[in-house]
Amino acid sequence: MATAATRATPTRPRRDRRDRSVAGAARGHVRGVKIPTLLNNVPHARETRRWFYDDACASTLAAVTAGERRMKIKTEFPELNPSGDVYRVGTTLELTRAMAQTLARDGKRVKICVQRSMGQGVFQALPLSLSGVSKLLGMMDFEEDVAEMIDPNGGIGAEDGAEDGADAYILVQPQNIVGYSVLPYIAAMEEAVGDKPMIMINPKLDDIQSAGNVMSIRGRQERMDAVAAWREIYHFRLLYRKPYFFPIYGALRYTYYENAWELYKRVGMREEEEYVLRSTYDSEPDPDEMTKQIWG
Fold it and tell me: Where is this region: Disordered (predicted)?
């Protein structure tokens, strides 16, 4: 008669039933970050804004140090998303100041550039989100140790990239408008600047159709190639079910120094809220992949 000991089967190792992408993220070199919570509470707390400034500045400094020359960053937490109704130009100015001071402390003379009105006569125009930005930059205070290293009065054009002693250029939210493209101004500035680093903050350079046949099918591939030539060195955006901006379901983040796209899912409510790393990718995940990870 068999005993209990002889009838027992060997214990099998328990299978990891976690989502494969979660297990993969845990095994990778990227461990994720603690993203600030309650981001639908506006205005954001100073510590929340500072977290995003530091995150973007660290990635920018790493890219400049590594020798990148044409860079762009996209950071669209609620106060920096011009598509939303809680956009604050003051937050854009604070981010610009933080980035300029970071580069200045690295020994670089920095020129901050805002595009001027485009067009002729009564048809001159400037994007609404840039209205008054150039004047406000000229009125801002910078830290005493780097104030003399920063020129806040630049524009976007060949004359602004001429030999002026600057070592790096920050372009604040360059945008196309109906009837006029800012890309020729950027291209002329690139030629004048040469191999000095240029950083675009939250550019919006998609074609905008107009009755004047500007930014139409002709030349579209060349314009797309010109934008693609700028390397994205930082990316942060919240994930929603469009067209709404509430509730927040997750976040997508990329930094130059980690060289990985991180997908987070928002879990919990109020004080229990947090962003949990779901997966990492070598390139930006497509909407289907993000939908599967966040809502699947």
Answer: 1-25
| pLDDT tens-digit map of 240-251 | 887 777 889 999
Cβ–Cβ < 8 Å for 156, 175: no
Q: What is d(CA 101, CA 273) in angstroms, rounded to the nearest whole number?
A: 33
281 backbone dihedrals φ, ψ, rounded to 5°: -140, 155
Residue 215 CA to residue 206 CA, distance in Å, equals 9
What would the CATH number be for the domain defined by 69-231? 3.40.50
Span 148-191, pLDDT tens digits: 999 999 999 998 887 778 999 999 999 887 767 888 899 999 99
